[in-house]
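Hi! If you just cloned this repository, the fastest way to understand the data is to look at a raw example. We've pasted two of them here, unedited. The first protein comes first, obviously.
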Amino acid sequence: MVMKVIPRRSDERGNADHGWLKTFHTFSFAVYASGEHDQFGCLRVLNEDRVEPQTGFGTHPHREFEIFSYLVSGQLEHQDSMGNMEVLKRGDLQLTSAGTGIRHSEKCHGSEQVHFIQIWSIPHKGGLSPTYYTRHFTDEEKKDNWVQVVAPAGSPGVSDAREASGPAPVHSKLSLYATLLSPSSALPHVFPKEGDGELRKVYIHVVQTSRYNPGTPSGAQVRISGADVTVDLREGDGAYIMGEAGTEMKVENAGDRVAEILLFDVE
């Protein structure tokens, strides 16, 4: 079996402190441009954002992207041109299929900073009708377990209702899993056998929960291993991982605190 891991270190990400917004960009975004880090399969944007109270992203347009937000802490107020208005909190997953075009705003709600992961993926077809979904997953569900929070639309057990249990439907070849991994615990992940190509793609992101710390490694420690490869990650780090279908990798908490980890299985 073959597996390759390429770390994406937190302090190498694009980052900016605008006062009201502190942000890290895994892929090219806004004024940050990197030919080496434009996208990974259909995964196009992975931003770790912290927005201060009473501020946020004003109303702006999007089209032909699947846009979702994973809430880490605080509260995020969403409004859009489809008439949706919602305040999201820890454990919530919001997904907007922009399709032919929407306008929306995302602002910090309440008196505390909101910390969330902003994710965009490229849909497998254009001209879709705009749709909106929300899902909620508790910390207890995610404790030492991979919880699938996003799955391709039309997959078995995936509801297309605005609010439902189970993963939110995305119109991309992408699945997103989340875990809260305890110290000394480990979880396996097997590269799926479905899909095209010899090597399957996974992207791992370790959520930067400790603090906003550009250039300063801290917090949780995660070890990725499999097929004679071992790579250590810290909070804010990510990794491009390629493996043959059927290869098993292990994701281990090698530190002394709970690690919040996102795993993207993409094509």
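Ok, and the second one:
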Amino acid sequence: MELLKKDNYYHIYNREINSETVFQDANNMSYFLKLVEKYLIPKVNILAYCLLNNHFHFAIEVTADTKDVNQAFSNLFNAYTKAYNKQNSRTGALFERPFKKKTG
């Protein structure tokens, strides 16, 4: 996977691994956004975002070093997956790997 680079703009998007619902309700979305604030805000500027039931989109500007921002995305996805799996009595991956991106 090509790494996200500092001072670049990206459209980041991904969906649930089985094309099922990844955000079942407003509480799931709210929790995901809290994790975004915790893991991503220190590393990226979020220009726009959209959370849908089975996928998400972010338009971002990377403001941190490559290694730090890529680790932040990994931490975000892992933290949400653990919480979602616990809530729904499931195991395994939740999002497709690697997440998709377009440079802008």
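That's it. A detail worth noticing about the second one: The CA atoms of residues 50 and 57 lie 5 Å apart.
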